[in-house]
Write a structure and sequence with these properties.
The protein is α/β, with parallel strands linked by helices. The chain is built from 16 helices and ten strands. 45% of the residues lie in helices and 11% in strands. The strands form four sheets. It has a four-stranded mixed sheet, covered by helices on one side. It has a two-stranded parallel sheet with strand order 1-2. Strands 3-4 form a two-stranded antiparallel sheet. Pathway: Protein modification; protein ubiquitination.
Length: 425
């Protein structure tokens, strides 16, 4: 952190800093820098709120130190977006979530669940903001949706996740993170273009492989392109049942695609799809993300590292989790613990993800791997008729001393498959 702060202070001077060469800094170290930088910003904003309150001779309230989000499960998206829109000035405070009608206190677990449920709903095809491409199994921005304020709030949501060290199950293509760092620091001139980056056919392959394959065939076609394809520098898109045409260059509808200009056509088409056609949607998303995550630490990151910080890793290594698990009231050689790991290691990937979500509030693995979860199994001094209980705030699983493997497996599957909602004992 001293190295990072020196780099911030001295900038482009001749003083040496490792931060001038971010390729030698590990992603785990960069995550620490971003977390500490976020914490410092949170403390600074909270302190300022406190000073403002005292200077006006008003009684300080603990709630003013947090970004308090209060939502109903039945209106999750609308309530969340309304709360974030109303509390723009508080976005850089520590996040605290309350579900209306539930007694759970947010020590981290409620926040994780809020992100998980919200992302699932926002990215659902029926919501219309993002299009899911089955071939590439990723989401992309819908040019049909012109509700830019919601794109900004989704960007802020993703920024909040990074800012509060929460991993999200978002399936954006690598190109999205390249655009998110274009540029990494928001320009002072509001007329400057943002979210525009150099894109290639390879980027399109990662989103729309079938279309990209067709364009690749065009580039390698050995016959007469003009006569056989009969295309111009004009493309068509269907919008709410209406076919609209767009020129890729001035008078594009009158310029035929030939063997000589087909490379230009493909490049302009890819640029249209990934930059121009969704410019307003992505710009709103970009500003939303950076409204929370604005930090010089982003200068240290490559696009693929931003993706890891946002999404974590979907690769579950339960053997690594077993090696790093801590125990309270149990020994790792106790029969119940042996039954537990025999069952978990034999689970399908879907059930393993459910277990991780049940115990930690997220089914993703953080940057530092399973060891970073600090997962703990505690002995629950209750009847073996009870289901397991999780404290997601502390990544802790409370396990009754089940008498055999069959009973443990049955109770565990019931518990992890019905794990939505919070209560207090």
């Amino acid at each position: 952190m001293e190295e990072y702060h020196n780099w911030q202070c001295y900038g482009n001077s001749h003083r040496f800093s490792f931060c001038q060469y971010p390729f030698i800094i590990s992603i785990a170290a960069k995550k620490v820098i971003i977390q500490r930088d976020s914490e410092q910003q949170m403390i600074s904003i909270a302190r300022q709120s406190l000073v403002d309150k005292v200077s006006r001779r008003q009684k300080p309230d603990m709630n003013m130190l947090f970004l308090n989000v209060k939502v109903r499960r039945t209106h999750l998206v609308s309530d969340s977006l309304d709360e974030l829109a109303r509390k723009k000035a508080d976005l850089k405070k520590k996040l605290k979530v309350t579900f209306v009608g539930e007694a759970g206190l947010d020590m981290g677990g409620l926040t994780k669940e809020w992100f998980l449920l919200l992302i699932r709903q926002i990215f659902h095809p029926d919501y219309g903001m993002f299009t899911y491409h089955k071939d590439s199994q990723c989401h992309w921005f819908s040019f049909k949706c012109d509700n830019y304020s919601e794109f900004r709030l989704v960007g802020a949501l993703m920024g909040l996740a990074v800012y509060n060290s929460i991993t999200l199950d978002i399936r954006f293509p690598p190109c999205c993170y390249k655009k998110l760092l274009s540029p990494p620091i928001v320009p002072c001139d509001h007329n400057s273009l943002v979210g525009i980056c150099g894109v290639t056919l390879d980027d399109l392959f990662q989103i729309m492989p079938e279309l990209a394959h067709g364009l690749s065939e065009l580039l390698s076609y050995e016959g007469n392109v003009e006569e056989d394809f009969y295309s111009t520098f004009q493309v068509f898109q269907e919008e709410f049942g209406v076919i609209k045409s767009y020129n890729l260059k001035p008078n594009g509808d009158k310029i035929p695609v030939t063997n000589r200009n087909r490379k230009e056509y493909v490049q302009l088409y890819v640029d249209f799809l990934l930059n121009k056609s969704i410019y307003k949607q992505f710009a709103a998303f970009y500003y939303g993300f950076h409204s929370v995550c604005a930090s010089y630490a982003l200068l240290l990151l490559r696009p693929e590292e931003v993706e890891i910080l946002v999404c974590g890793s979907p690769e579950l290594d339960m053997s690594a989790l077993q090696r790093s698990t801590q125990y309270e009231g149990y020994q790792k050689t106790d029969p119940t613990i042996r039954y537990f790991w025999d069952v978990v290691l034999g689970f399908s990937l879907d059930l393993q993800k459910k277990l991780l979500h049940f115990a930690t509030g997220s089914d993703r693995v953080p940057v530092g791997g399973m060891a970073d979860l600090n997962f703990k199994i505690s002995k629950s001094e209750t009847s073996t008729n009870w289901l397991p209980v999780a404290h997601t705030c502390f990544n802790q699983l409370c396990l009754p001393p089940y008498k055999n493997k069959k009973e443990l497996k049955q109770k565990l599957i019931i518990g992890i498959s019905n794990a939505e909602g919070f209560g207090l004992e």
